[in-house]
TrEMBL record:
GO terms for biological process: cellular response to ionizing radiation; DNA repair; DNA replication checkpoint signaling; mitotic intra-S DNA damage checkpoint signaling. It comes from the Eukaryota. This is Cell cycle checkpoint control protein RAD9A. The lineage of its organism: Eukaryota, Sar, Stramenopiles, Ochrophyta, Bacillariophyta. One of its GO terms (cellular component) is checkpoint clamp complex. Pfam families: Rad9. Residues 63-98 are annotated as: Disordered. Residues 73-86 have a biased composition (Basic residues). Gene3D superfamilies: 3.70.10.10. InterPro entries: DNA_clamp_sf, Rad9/Ddc1.
Length: 363
């Protein structure tokens, strides 16, 4: 891998690594000269998956050095069909050459801490993969301009490990969707303090989207006699709710024509209650403050949120001509939620003792 990032895009690229460090401990990098560079991370609970994909147009240079050994990193086929041997041997050889420099690797985000820290006067950032003593390293080379006419070069060499990568397990088919600016979604979530999870309550008839802090004591079982400790702790938790009318969103489309089945709540055509991890969501939405201010994209950024019902993954995604970003979150299964009250100021009798299946699997 041999890529060069221009000065106006360095901050956005480094911020993506900083965002992923708030999701998981490792980042999975996949590179191809034609497809660009993808950065992915998965948290320990497998309840949050984030991906940033930078297209070749994002870089000043996006190529693979011809001197790079084939063994550096795991080679990846473009598709399952390319693994089948073609009758035309010339075509098969051309496909092998095309995939020769595709690879993926895993990098500890702790090792990248020195790379993602803020820097001033960065002229460019070059990232290359090199093999030293049969070990693969990524070289992050910063060119920093200093007055009067001095250029400093700072290089970080980070060891990487061979890995297949991770991918999200989610579907946007037949999903409801809302579109809003990252700032709007952050305004919903920022007031929620001292909580690891948040709950979106989306009401179709009232045309209202509310966000509420969610605690383990918000379960019906916490009122049982053997949960006296939880009952005592409940009095110390701060409960906060924010709300917004759907008219304030850019787009809103709620699926209200589903045929009720055994695997979905009976209120599925009226509202949705989605309990999801808060830390990773805040980190993802906060990234766009940096991305917008870095001027690497002249396009306005909007986040699309796809959702079904509790227990189905919630997906946040944005895309421009030069990059795309995606966050997939597991949500609390609707069967673990208690009776839903009509009071929009709180979520009553919700059970936080379980979570949907993981949103991502290692390949």
């Amino acid at each position: 891998m041999d890529v060069a990032i221009p000065s106006h895009s360095v901050r956005a690229f480094c911020a993506s690594l900083g965002c992923l460090s708030r999701v998981g401990k490792d980042v999975y990098m996949e590179f191809d000269p034609l497809d660009g560079l993808a950065l992915r991370s998965l948290n320990d609970a497998k309840s949050a998956y984030a991906c940033f994909r930078f297209e070749p147009s994002f870089f000043e240079r996006c190529t693979s050095p011809p001197s790079q050994p084939r063994a550096s990193g795991r080679n990846r086929r473009r598709s399952q069909h390319s693994r089948k041997r073609s009758v035309n041997h010339d075509s098969d050889s051309e496909s092998d050459d095309d995939n020769e420099w595709r690879f993926s690797c895993r990098v500890a985000l702790r090792a990248l801490a020195a790379v993602v820290r803020p820097r001033k006067h960065v002229a460019s950032l070059a990232i290359t993969s090199r093999v030293t003593h049969s070990a693969l390293f990524l070289h992050f080379e910063f060119n920093i301009q200093a007055p009067p006419n001095t250029t400093w070069r700072v290089t970080h060499r980070v060891p990487v490990a061979d890995a297949n990568g991770v991918s999200a397990v989610s579907s946007k088919d037949d999903a409801s969707e809302l579109v809003a600016s990252p700032q709007t979604l952050l305004r919903l979530l920022d007031p929620l303090k001292n909580t690891l999870e948040a709950a979106f309550r989306i009401r179709n008839q009232e045309r209202l989207v509310a966000a509420t802090s969610f605690h383990p004591t918000d379960s019906a079982s916490s009122n049982a006699p053997n949960n006296a400790i939880l009952q005592a702790a409940a009095s110390t938790f701060l409960k906060t709710e924010t709300g917004i009318r759907v008219d304030e969103l850019d787009e809103f489309e709620f699926r209200d024509d589903r045929a009720i089945a055994d695997n979905m709540p009976d209120y599925v055509n009226d509202k949705a209650v989605l309990v999801f991890p808060l830390k990773e969501t805040r980190a993802f939405l906060s990234y766009f403050k940096t991305a917008t201010g870095s001027n690497f994209s002249d396009e306005p950024l909007h986040v699309s949120v796809w959702f079904h019902w509790g227990g189905k993954p919630l997906t946040m995604e944005t895309k421009t001509t030069s990059f795309s970003a995606q966050l997939v979150l597991a949500t609390l299964d609707y069967s673990l939620l208690g009776p839903l009250e009509d009071n929009s100021a709180s979520i009553e009798n919700d059970n936080s003792s379980g979570r949907a299946t993981s949103v991502a699997d290692k390949e």
